[in-house]
Amino acid sequence: MRVAKSFARLFSKDKTLPGGAVIVYEEIIIGLGANGSDHHEKSGCRRAELGCKTGEGYELCEGCHPKNHSEPRAIQNALSRGYKTKGADLYLWGHWWCCKWCWDSMLKAGIKNVYLLEKSEVLFNKEHPDNMICKQLDLPMTHQEDLFVLHIKSFVSKPGRRQILAERFKDAPSNIDDWLEGNNLPGMNLRTLIMDYIWNYPCFYPNS
To answer: pTM above the 0.90 mark?
Structure first.
């Protein structure tokens, strides 16, 4: 769940309800997704203009369309990298329920379980008086450094990956052993480069 929040913090384009989804199979992160698009900033929201209720009319607005939701984006991220999602779990941060389109997408992908943040029905519910809408990212939880460490742990969990990463970033000011412990982490720019390298690395072991 920490990774889902960190990914939402970094990549969600929804300023009101930023969300992130992480797909996990056998304790390995295989897919990541964040919600939103820049459509609303450029063209407004058609659903808001029509007074649509929560969960209705997503197909009427390009910015609200389910293709921009974090769940299907995480599924697509996993599939595009050669992973199979059947039997995997999805962790969703930033929302307290999933729309029908997303449920259908997850069922089609074979997602086994969906996990939400505890008390998400309060924190992320626009109609609840104690919600944290527009303040979600202020909730105490670690951010990009945690995401980086989890990327490293996931990547080097397979044989040969540690050496590949060490060779690729041999000029880094610290080493993988430090990173795995969360110590002496590289600066943000290098962290971003390393994470990008990991998520674009050819998949050695598509799940069966």
So the answer is: no
